[in-house]
């Protein structure tokens, strides 16, 4: 059986220090409820510079310059570890805020983003140098008079854009009365689109992909775009494809909270496996609302505000090339409606259902990629080490099934797991961060099988209390195999011979 492959992956971070305070939900709610709080007075003193963000080792891991295993050798908090990082990574980049504001403007299709003229003049050279792929849209980067900015912002007709704590522009509302097109929502959606475009461009650049070869795009972030008649009508995917030059692609949005990316990758694999499309890009922009989500705990403990980046990624799923890791579409796991919500029931459904169909043990998987949140962020906030907790549950399940001796449980966590490194942007850390490393490990590395697991909390949407999750197995490619049902050359010859014989007989009868 021929399976689709993971052909490439990109990962991007955008340093957005001003958005933490101005647009992140934690600071926005605090400003609304306790405008004179000590937290609001103190938070700006804990915001890192761009250089500090680049030199933060989990961020270097995210863009592919360092391996996640290196984090095991470094004591927490990692924000105190000194290193010299790079903007450009093996699989992506860390983008500065000023260039991102320019990206938001060129991604704006309805003239909603206004930027100060001197700001645009200063940023244009760097932006055009760093993103030559977007040359067809450079004309959209233009400066304006923004003397009306404060009035529009105060009346909630616009959302301010800031750099170095200075107002440099704004995003206007797109409708007078539609809350789905108000300034705040348009700001958030443009952040998603712009960061998704950066991820798509990086995938094309790093993996040397021909943009015209992409047939379909699936966007899997956690925001939704639409209007009062269809709040989540979409379509981020096609909007990103347009900017990235994917002229032959269509697309749609897939949502599933944190599990969305894994759902999207399974959908992409199914589209390729079925032959509907040859190359499908799964892409996600980041969430400005989650910036500084745990900032209160970080500030209280004297730490920097570590949730200071918007994340994004893109993954290319393609037809089997005989080289890249295959997605075993026959070995997926899922949390079904009847599964239940206990941790044991969830893990059993996600981890073992796919393995059982291939008579595999939990220990037959070389590495599990779960919720790869950075513990530097989550532990000070009281959420513990999320990846480690997942690995302990998987190990306990292995013991319960008889796949693992109890005395080997501690080793299981270190042998089958990897430290978390991804920013806590919901969908961003969920299974997907390992895929880039997985492509390396399952081609030139020493791994043969990995499992990607995505989990989501559906109660957040207030439509159901059900849990959610899906998983899939990735394996080293053994070379393209012919379909079992494929017609052989000998069979083709036989069919042709029989057809010719019948044709000759028919001609004789007619005579």
UniProtKB/TrEMBL annotation:
DUF5940 domain residues: 345-508
InterPro entries: ACP_syn_III_N, DUF5940, Thiolase-like
Transmembrane feature ranges: none
Protein name according to UniProt: Glycine/sarcosine/betaine reductase complex component C subunit beta
Taxonomic placement: Bacteria, Bacillati, Bacillota, Clostridia, Peptostreptococcales
Gene3D superfamilies: 3.40.47.10
Organism, scientific name: Paraclostridium bifermentans ATCC 638 = DSM 14991
Main EC class the enzyme belongs to: oxidoreductase
Span of the signal peptide: none
Oxidoreductase keyword on record: yes
All copies of domain Beta-ketoacyl-[acyl-carrier-protein] synthase III N-terminal, residue ranges: 253-331
GO molecular function per UniProt: 3-oxoacyl-[acyl-carrier-protein] synthase activity; betaine reductase activity
CDD domains: init_cond_enzymes
Keyword line: Oxidoreductase
Gene Ontology biological process terms from the UniProt entry: fatty acid biosynthetic process
Record EC number: 1.21.4.4
């Amino acid at each position: 059986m021929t399976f689709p492959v993971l052909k490439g992956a990109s990962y991007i971070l955008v340093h957005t220090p001003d958005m933490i305070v101005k647009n992140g939900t934690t600071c926005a709610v605090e400003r609304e409820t306790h405008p004179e709080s000590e937290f609001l007075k103190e938070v700006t003193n804990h915001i890192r510079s761009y250089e500090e963000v680049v030199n933060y080792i989990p961020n270097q891991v995210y863009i592919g310059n360092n391996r996640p295993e290196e984090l095991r050798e470094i004591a927490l908090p990692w924000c105190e570890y000194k290193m010299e990082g790079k903007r450009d990574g093996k699989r992506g980049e860390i983008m500065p805020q000023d260039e991102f504001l320019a990206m938001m403007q060129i991604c704006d299709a309805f003239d909603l983003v206004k930027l100060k003229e001197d700001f645009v003049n200063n940023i244009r050279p760097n932006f055009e140098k760093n993103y030559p792929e977007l040359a067809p849209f450079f004309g959209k980067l233009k400066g304006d008079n923004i003397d009306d900015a404060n009035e529009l912002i105060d009346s909630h007709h616009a959302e301010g854009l800031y750099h170095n704590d200075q107002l440099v522009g704004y995003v206007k509302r797109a409708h007078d009365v539609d809350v789905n097109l108000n300034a705040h929502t348009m700001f958030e959606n443009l952040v998603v689109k712009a960061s998704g475009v950066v991820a798509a461009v990086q995938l094309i650049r790093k993996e040397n992909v021909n943009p015209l070869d992409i047939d379909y795009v699936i966007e899997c972030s956690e925001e939704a775009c639409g209007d009062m008649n269809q709040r989540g009508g979409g379509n981020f995917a096609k909007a990103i494809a347009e900017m990235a030059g994917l002229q032959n692609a269509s697309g749609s949005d897939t949502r599933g909270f944190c599990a969305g990316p894994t759902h999207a990758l399974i959908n992409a694999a199914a589209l390729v496996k079925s032959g509907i499309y040859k190359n499908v890009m799964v892409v996600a922009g980041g969430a400005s609302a989650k910036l500084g989500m745990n900032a209160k705990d970080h500030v209280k403990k004297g730490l920097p505000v570590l949730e200071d980046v918007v994340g994004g990624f893109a993954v290319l799923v393609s037809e089997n090339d005989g080289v890249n890791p295959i997605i075993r579409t026959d070995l997926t796991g899922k949390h079904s409606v009847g599964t239940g919500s206990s941790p044991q029931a969830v893990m059993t459904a996600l981890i073992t259902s796919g393995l059982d169909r291939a008579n595999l043990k939990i220990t037959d998987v070389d590495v599990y990629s779960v919720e790869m949140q950075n513990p530097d962020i989550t532990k000070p906030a009281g959420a513990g080490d999320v990846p480690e907790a997942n690995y302990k549950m998987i190990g306990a399940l292995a013991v319960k099934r008889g796949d693992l001796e109890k005395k080997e449980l501690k080793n299981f966590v270190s042998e089958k797991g990897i430290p978390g490194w991804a920013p806590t942007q919901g969908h961003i850390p969920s299974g997907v961060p390992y895929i880039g490393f997985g492509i390396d490990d399952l081609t030139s590395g020493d791994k043969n099988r990995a499992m990607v697991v995505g989990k989501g909390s559906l109660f957040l949407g207030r439509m159901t209390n059900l849990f959610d999750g899906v998983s899939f197995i990735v394996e080293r490619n053994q070379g393209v195999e012919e379909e079992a049902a494929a017609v052989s050359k000998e069979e083709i010859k036989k069919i042709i011979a029989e057809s010719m014989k019948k044709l000759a007989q028919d001609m004789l009868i007619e005579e």
